[in-house]
Amino acid sequence: MESEPPFEETYKTLFDSHSVKELSKPQLITDVWAAEERELPLIDLRMLSEGDAAEIEECKREITKASEEWGFFQVVNHGVSGDVLEGMRREQVKVFREPFYKKKDCRIMNMSPGSYRWGTPSATSLWQLSWSEAFHIPLTDIPRFGSRTSLRLTMKKFATSIAELGLKLASILAESLGEESRFLEESCSQSTCYLRMNRYPPCPKYRRVFGLMPHTDSDFLTILCQDQVGGLQLVKDGKWISVQPNPKALIVNIGDLFQAWSNGVYRSVEHRVVANGKIERFSTAYFLCPSHDAIIQSCKQPSLYRRFSFREYRQQVQDDVKESGHKIGLSRFLICRD
Fold first, then answer.
1. Cβ contacts of residue 319 below 8 Å, gap of 6+?
2. φ, ψ for residue 296 (rounded to 5)?
3. Is residue 331 part of a domain?
4. What is the extent of the structural domain holding 149?
5. Residue 15 resides in a domain
6. What is the CATH number of the domain that holds 57?
7. Catalytic one among 281, 307, 311, 332?
8. Are strands 194-200 and 281-288 parallel, antiparallel or unpaired?
9. CB atoms within 10 A of CB 81
10. Residue 188 falls inside a structural domain
11. Phi, psi dihedral angles at 3 (to 5 degrees)
12. Which residues partner with 44 through β-bridges?
């Protein structure tokens, strides 16, 4: 199909050189098919607006507990209408059906350079390759993105609702630490956050590559709207588990910045997406990010992590990926103690 990225042609050398030795690496896909399917903690946010004082506090405790023990949870009655979510799915499918030559041309798509991404340009082995394509869209780019008004209007509604939800959840988590949410509200705005529309094409090499390679998110908080195909997996108690899709829920996960800011109270958990041999998968993620100049420092003492700016963190991640093929993340910023 003219819309498909040329994965097999572009990464032919990696597939041809793939060896049995590579398959023995722990990062590879040897454990994918043995992963147990489990349901994430499910939290009803209706209690925040309709519950009494005790129910409100209980809901907040559930959010905090899931962030500490899982780093992931699901929310229902979240305030984002079903019409907006379904509309986002329809528009997303349409834009990914555009011919490949159009998708990769930022002028045709009215997007910032580098917004369309596919595969893993830095991959030097199959375990570093992600069989997926995505549009990485700063919220400030939405008013001009693409060629269809319906897409822009739908994205705007989606982003507005999701951003409100993201700040609400982040504020609850900050207050649970005994901290004011002002820092998050002031540093995370429409000019710093972004959406990422993802598509995972059917993969004939699905037993040899990931849809999205294992990673943690580099933001404060991620909110994910996914279809019902499944494929998301995360680490829990040292084991990979498969997330059972819930058609009524949005998935929320803690990012690296929240783990550092909370001094390790909240967990940024490694996760990945499994490739599927027959069915394509779609999702849209919202990333709650601060400005590049925002300084991240642990709110508790003694601090596990040194102070760093978001700009410094992103640059370190990019340097590590370029050097080693994978993200190293927060361990780079740990304070070594005797």
1. none
2. -100, 120
3. no
4. 28-295
5. no
6. 2.60.120.330
7. 281
8. antiparallel
9. 12
10. yes
11. -85, -15
12. 76
**251, 267, 281, 207: which is closest to 34 by C-alpha?**
207
Which two tokens mark 179?
A: 């901290």
Question: What is the pLDDT at residue 338?
Answer: 52
Separation CA 80–CA 159 (nearest Å):
10
Residues of the chain with pLDDT under 70: 18-31, 33-34, 337-338
For residues 246 and 42, the answer to whether their CB atoms sit within 8 Å is: yes
Reply yes or no on whether 281 is catalytic: yes
Q: What is the pLDDT of residue 20?
A: 42
pLDDT at 35: 82
Q: Is the dihedral of CA 90, 94, 95, 97 positive or negative?
A: positive
Q: Would 6 be classed as within a structural domain?
A: no
Tokens, residue 333: 């910023």
Q: Is the CB of residue 226 less than 8 Å from the CB of residue 245?
A: yes
Which pTM value belongs to this model?
0.94
Nearest to 92 by CA among 225, 230, 214, 212: 225
Total tally of structural domains belonging to the chain: 1
Length of the chain: 338
Q: What is the 3-state secondary structure (H, E, C) of the chain?
A: CCCCCCHHHHCHHHHHHCCHHHHCCCCCHHHHHHCEEECCCEEECHHHHHCCHHHHHHHHHHHHHHHHHCCEEEEECCCCCHHHHHHHHHHHHHHHCCCHHHHCCHHHHCCCCCCEEECCCCCCCHHHCECCEEEEEEHHHHHHCCCCHHHHHHHHHHHHHHHHHHHHHHHHHHHHCCCCCHHHHHHCCCCCCEEEEEEECCCCCCCCCEEEEEECCCCCEEEEEECCCCCEEEEECCEEEEECCCCCCEEEEECHHHHHHCCCCCCCCCEEEECCCCCCEEEEEEEECCCCCCEECCCCCCCCECCEEHHHHHHHHHHHHHHHCCCCHHHHHECCCC
What is the pLDDT, as a whole number, of residue 125? 87
Neighbours of 57 (CB within 10 A): 12
